[in-house]
Amino acid sequence: MAIENIPEIYLKTNKSKKDLFVYDFKMTNNVVKSKVNLSMNMFSFLQVGKKQVHFADTSIAVNKEQSLLLKKGNSLWTELLDNEDIYYCKLLFFSENKLIDFLIKHTSNIASNKEEIPYFVIENDTYISSYLNSLSAISGSDSIYMENLLAVKFEEIMLYLINKYGSKFELYLYSLISKESFSFKNIVESNINSNLKIEEIAFLCNMSLSTFKRHFINEYSMSPGKWLQDKRLQSAKKTLQEGTLKPSDIYLDCGYNNLSNFSVAFKNKFGISPKEIK
């Protein structure tokens, strides 16, 4: 699967990256787990459809009632159509320089959010709907006047969200300019119970598959496939012992495409089928 470099793929070939950039994204087909290298922080104002983003150690899913502010970096995106057979969101990209300018102008120099969460969920409301309508008139314009107006609109949405969410949002903005520090083991062990493929976890570690495998063997003294299978089967056994879920409910989350393969692997590991767990 090719890596999508965003927003570069949305920019015209004769244009360099700007500090602020608006793009209307529409599609008519579902896209599952696309690899995205996001080089600018980005608002994703979802209007129609559903979106899930998987980061190094967490994931988030939203519908058209919500929007996201995403931190730049590598992630996996799943974008699904709504009943209208369309997916639509308005994207607003902003550079770190533009963010720093805003923080200096409008906020106090407060401590960074130590949690380093790569997203902030925004509940869509009537103000945001009105804001997006006004933003539509600016999209795609090369006029210097429109560029200046977009700068004003950027400050507007930032100030509105600080007013709406208070210090929580302000702290998050400061976290966007702090250095990411996820370790290799943090990423691997955060995805034990995900259904991500090894190559997808390697991507989240910013490694090629071959480099990831070498690093993994040095760290864990076994191949990533064997290690992940063992951990996921152990987790599956524990879940089944709790008695609330059936094998058919969990095999996908354990990384198996069908129940039969999961049952065979489970029996090979524990000597009994998952249906026999009590």
Q: How are the secondary structure elements laid out?
A:
Blueprint: E1 3-6, E2 20-27, E3 31-38, E4 41-48, E5 50-54, E6 59-62, E7 66-70, E8 73-80, E9 87-94, H1 96-106, E10 119-123, H2 126-136, H3 144-165, H4 167-175, H5 184-190, H6 198-204, H7 209-220, H8 224-241, H9 247-250, H10 259-270
Parallel strand pairs: 1-3
Antiparallel strand pairs: 2-9, 3-8, 4-7, 4-9, 5-6, 5-8, 7-10
Helix pairs in contact: 6-7
Summarize the structure.
This protein is an alpha+beta fold and 278 residues long. The protein is built from 10 helices and 10 strands.
How would you sum up this structure, described in words?
Helix content is 41%, strand content 23%. It has 278 residues and is an alpha+beta fold. A hairpin with a 4-residue loop joins strand 5 (50-54) and strand 6. It contains ten helices and ten strands. It has a five-stranded mixed beta sheet with strand order 1-3-8-5-6, covered by helices on one side. Strands 2-9-4-7-10 form a five-stranded antiparallel beta sheet. Helix 6 (198-204) crosses helix 7 (209-220). The protein folds into two domains: 3-175, Jelly Rolls; 184-276, Homeodomain-like (Arc Repressor Mutant, subunit A). Pfam families: ExsA_N, HTH_18. Keywords: DNA-binding, Transcription, Transcription regulation. Residues 182-278 form the HTH araC/xylS-type domain. One of its GO terms (molecular function) is sequence-specific DNA binding.
